[in-house]
Every structure is written in C-alpha cells, then in structure tokens.
C-alpha cells in the first residue's frame, strides 16, 4: 500500500496538494486538501482495466470557478435551506442566498472551498488521509465554532471508508456529505442512463418547484422511484411522474433508507461489469442523476459535461430538516459529536 503526495496548484499563495492512495490491488483514490475533494478513483472493470469512475477537473481553478461540487465535502448543511434562514432557541440566523431565495450546500464559500489540513494515515490493511478544519462562529451565517475531521481510508478490499466527525461550542446545524459524481463506465466514456441502481428504500421526500422538501414522505410503490428490486436510471428520464418531471426528467430526491450498513445501495454498470456498494449510518441518500448539469465544462479526461453524465449518491440527514418537525433533527449540541460513516465498496460482476 502506498501514498503519493504531489503539488496540485496554488490558491492565494498557499499550495494545494494531491494525495494518491493505492492498495495492493492497484486501485487508487486521489484527493486534494481543497474541500477534501476526491478528484479520481481508479478501479478495475471485469477485464482488469483500471479506469476513473468519478468526475473531476485537472486544475484548482476549475474546482473554484465551476460550481459543480465534484467530489467535494459540502456543508455545514448539505442541500437547500428554505429562505436561507432558520431559528434556534428564538435566535434568527440568516445565511447567504446562493440559489434563488434559498441557501445551498453551505453557502457562497462552503466546506468545498476551504483549505483543510491534511495528515497521511498508514495502517496494516489501509492507507488514508485525515483532513481537519475549524469553521468559526458566524462563518456563512451559522452559529458556533465547529471543529471537523474528514477521514478517507482505502483498504485492500477495495473499500473507500469515509468518516466525518464534528463538534461545536454552540448549538448549531450540521449535515455533511460527499458530493462525488459516479460513472462506472470508466473515464466517463458513456452516460449513466443504463446503470442499474438498487436501493433499500420504501419512501422518498416530495419536493416543491424549488426542489425543497414539502414535508411529505411518498411511497415508492408503483413508481419510477421504486429501486428495491433494481431499475435502470433511464426510467427516471422517461417517467411521467410529476416528481421526475419537476427534477428535470430524472432524480434529485432524498430517499429514506429502510436499513443501514447492510448493502443498502448498489450501483451496477453491466457493460464494464463494475459495481459500487454503498453502506452508511445516515438516514437518507440523495440520488441526483445530473439532470441540471450544463455542457459548459470539461472533465479531467477531456469529456464535455452534459445531463446524465454521472450519478450522485449523497448519504446524509434529510435536507431542510430544521423546517420540518417530522424529520430527524440535524441539530448539533455542544455536548454531543456528529459522526457520519459511509463505506463505498468497488467490485465487478
């Protein structure tokens, strides 16, 4: 097992480094200390060909200029907060409005744009990086100083284990996720519409026309949102369901997980034979099939971005939970610790 460190770029005179983790099977995960961004994951197909299965850019400048959140840690709160405001203990907090009238993915300069401290980790059966960052009281409008750590471990079982921890000195909101865009075809040589997804989920959140949860939890039964026995992602593009149409002919929805850490999410690309199994301790996964992706950007492989080029599987708490009493809380108290664990296992069928 091995870790290779290289200079990736410079921001305001500060060097950004890339860290390539490699296991004994030749699988590689590369990340940078800007936003804990995963820039590349190279995994074998059924013929043993190593190819990249996430979308990324070649330069620091592209990550900062293109607001696509490729591979980044987003927060303090992933997803949208309605009207960019919330209340805690009769105190009103106002956040930057960076998507219409709402607050998205932590604001104008969220965790995805911060420079994190990085420390390599070497264990018997894994190599990794531990990132740390202190988000000061009032940053992007949020109360409390939050101390965070994000650990990426790569094991010899082709597992990427992601652990996010946080503590605060004042009651605040914290709901963090990784925003990697997956495409198991390899080097984004095809879109993800023929990928098959299986999810242990009986319900998904209804969204309004601003893609904010209405508070209703809808049954997946009899709809294109029923992934319990596996279905092609193309079904969402073709579906006449008003929620698929609302999201831009596809998915951009939180699915409530019926089980945790029990192979609850499986993605398959039959052509390459690659599989991705996702297990998490989080209550939901936001499935986004890149329905809104523009064609303005070019990935690190030289592929022009477009709709349906990749799928996000964002494990997290429920979006806009602060405004819905029936959702699990994303409030963090000074007496407790936030801990999110997600394991991505790459294989072949």
- The count of helical stretches stands at 3
Q: In what range is the share of β-strand residues? A: 35-45%
The portion of residues assigned to helices is under 10%
CATH domain class: Mainly Beta
Distance between the amino and carboxyl termini: 25 Å
What's the arrangement of strands in the largest beta sheet?
11-12-13-14-28-24-23-18-21
- How would you sum up the global shape? globular
Uncertain stretches of 5 or more adjacent residues? none
Radius of gyration: 19 Å
Any idea how many domains? 1
SS content category: mainly beta
Number of strands: 28
CATH topology: Beta-galactosidase, Chain A, domain 5
Would you tell me the overall average pLDDT? 97
Q: Which CATH architecture is right?
A: Distorted Sandwich
Query: Biggest sheet, open or closed, and with what strands and sense?
Result: 9 strands, antiparallel
Oligomer: single chain
Overview of the structural elements:
The structure is a single chain. The chain is 5% helix and 42% strand. It is mainly β and 349 residues long. It has a single domain (2-348), classed as Distorted Sandwich (Beta-galactosidase, Chain A, domain 5). Strand 3 (28-32) and strand 4 form a beta hairpin. It starts with a strand and ends with a strand. The relative contact order is 0.17.
In short:
The protein has 349 residues and is mainly beta. It has helices spanning 60-65, 234-238, 242-246; strands spanning 2-11, 14-22, 28-32, 38-44, 50-52, 73-74, 80-81, 85-88, 91-94, 103-104, 117-122, 126-135, 146-155, 159-168, 172-173, 177-178, 181-182, 196-199, 203-207, 213-219, 231-232, 252-256, 265-268, 274-280, 284-288, 311-316, 331-332, 338-348.
